[in-house]
Amino acid sequence: MLDLPRRCAATTRIAAVALGLTIATPHPAHAADRASPVADPARSELDLGLAAYGRREYAQALLHFERSYAAQPDPATLYAWAQASRGAGRCAQAIALYQRFIDGGAAGASREAALQNQARCREQIEQTPEPESPPSRPPPPLVRRSPQAAVSPGPPPPQTRPDRVGVALVGTGAAVLAVGVGVLVAAILQHRAQRTTRDYDRFDRLDTRIDGLYIGGGVALGLGAGLVTGGVIRMHRRRR
What we know:
The two termini are 96 Å apart. This protein is mainly alpha-helical. The protein has nine helices and no strands. The longest helix has 40 residues, at 200-239. It has helices at 9-24, 28-35, 41-54, 58-71, 75-87, 91-103, 108-127, 164-196, 200-239.
């Protein structure tokens, strides 16, 4: 940067004087181009770079300085390029450019300013902590799988047909059970009616009928249960 902290005011004045002297020194090529009607691209890029540097647009300034130096290598442009690189935070590039400026024959205040700026760049690089890299995880262990032999599918299981006789027995037994339950319900209702009647003849008739209903319902339940049990056993045996 051209604007340094106050503690470096003396060094700043040295750098400013060095840069001003090198820029202000008329270069033979520049003097010839002022007399020529054709614009000098190196000088134009240098002026654009200095304007951007004054606005502290260091990234834009170093691009113009780089183009100017490519068109016309000049120590002043090289030093300005290094200053812009340092201002943009590219200290490694700035150190290399300062060294080129020194190796090019810089002497006196210019050389001293370049050396001091190099030292500042190195301190900045050392003080800047490197980003911590996440801890590397060990790779998962390699699991070797043994080749598996091809398993041929076996024959499909035999399809068993439903036992029609067993199904018929279960169905008939369920129907007989339903009849038996109905007969027992009728017997219970007749028994309730018998309790409320005061006619002895009717009481005797209901008594005989109730006995018959109970007997018939019990027989139906027993027969239905036997049919259902037989049908279930038969179908179970057929499935084995």
